[in-house]
Predict the structure.
Amino acid sequence: MLSNQAGDEKRKSLHGHWSSRMAFVLAVTGSAVGLGNIWKFPYIAGQNGGGAFVLVYLVCVVVIGMPVMMSEILIGRRGRRNPVATMELLGKEEGHSGKWRLVGSLGVLAGILILSYYSVIAGWTLAYIVKSASGVFAGASAEAVEAQFNSFVGDWRLIGLCHTVFMALAVFVVARGVERGLEQAVRFMVPALLFLMIVLLVYSMNSGYFGEGVAFMFTPDFDKLTWNSVLAALGQAFFTLSIGMGAIMAYGAYLPEETSITGSSAAVVIADTSIAILAGLAIFPLVFANNLDPADGPGLVFDTLPLAFGQMAGGVFFSTIFFVLLSFAAWTSAIGLMEPAVAWIVERFSKTRAQATVMIGFTIWFIGWGSVLSFNVLSDVTFLAGTIFDNVDYLTSNIMLPLGGLLIVIFAGWVMARNSTADELHSSGSLFKAWRVLARFVAPVGILLVLINAVL
Ligand code: PHE
C-alpha cells in the first residue's frame, strides 16, 4: 500500500528545486506575465465591449483563479512529479483512482496546443524589435502602422520564420533546466516591463483621450454581456494566470517545503492583474485618440503601441526595448507551457531533458503552422470559432483550461483529504477555510455554470 506522504521522508523532484521562495515567485510570475496580459487582454476586452467584461474577468481572477492556482501548487508540491504522474500518484494515495492522471494529460495537450499559436504571436514581437529599431514607426501615421502590420502578417514565410526562431529560443532554455537562466531573466524582466508600461501610461494619459479609455474599461454595460463573453472572461483569467493546464503544478513540484503557497499565489495574482490593467489603460486611450476600432482583434497592440512610441521623444529606443521585454515575457511563459510535456516525457520515457525538449518543441512548431497560415494563405478557411488560429485559441482558453481547472479544484477540494491540503497550505485557520469554500463550492459551481451556459 502506498503510505501517506506526511510523516515519512518528503519527496524530492527529479528535476531540481527552486533556490528560494523568491525564485519560485519570479518563475511563476514569469510564466503568468506574458502575451496574455499585453497582447490578449486588451484585444479580448475590446472585442467583448470593455467594462462588463473587465469586471467579470476580475471577479474570475479572485474567486476562481486564486483558489485554482493554490490547488495546483499544493498538488504539484505534494506529488513532486510531472502533472500526469502527480495526479496518478495522489489519486491513488488519497484512496481514489489513478485515472486522475488524465487531468495531467489534458494539461500536457493544452500546453502543446497553446504554445503552437503563442509562439506565432511571440514571433511577431521578435520582428517588431527589428522594425522598431529600424525606425519605421518614427512619426508614422495610424494608417501607416496598420499597413505595416497587415503586410507583415500577410507574409507567411516571414511570420513562419519568426515562429521558428521563437520556438528555437524556447527549446534552448527549457533544455537547460529549471533553474539556470530562467530566474535571472525574470528578475530583470518583470520590473523593467512594469516600468515601460508606466511610461506608456503617462503618454496615453496625455493623449487627450484617457477619460474615454478609462470609461471604456471600467463602465460596465451589462447589455453587452453574453454568456460567450463571460466564458471569454473566464478563459482569459485562466490563460493569463497560466492555470488549468499543469504549468503551475509542474512549477509547484520544484517548490521547497516551507514556502507559503497562499502568499506566493497572492503575489503572482496581483502582479499579473496589475500588468494587464496597465496595458489596457495604456492602449485604449490610444485606440480612441486615433479612431481605431477596440474590436480590432489580435493586431490591436501592434497597431497602437508602435504608433504611440513613434510620436514620443526617444520613441525608437523605447519601442525597441518594449518589444524586447515583451519577447522576454513571452519566452518565460513559453517555458511554462512546455514544462508539463517535457517533464512527462523525461519521467515516463526516460529521455534526457534535451531530447524531450527537442521532441516536444518540434511537435509544437509543426502544429504552429496552422496558426501561421491563418493570417494569410488560409485566412478564408473558417469554421466554428473562425480561422484555425481562432479555433485553437477558443478550444484551449475557453474549454480546456476551465475544464482542467474544474477538475483540479474538485480534486483538491473533494478528493484530497482535508488534512492533506491543510498540511500543504500550512494552516487550518480562516485562510484555509476560505480557500476550501472557494475550491469546493464557489470555483466549481462558477466554472460549470459558465461552461454550460456558453457552450450548450
Ligand atoms: N499566462 C501566459 C500569458 O499570459 C500564458 C500561459 C498560459 C503560460 C498557460 C503558461 C501556461 O501570456
Observations:
- The two ends are 43 Å apart (CA to CA).
- The longest helix spans residues 315-349.
- The domain at 5-455 is CATH 1.10.4160 (Hydantoin permease).
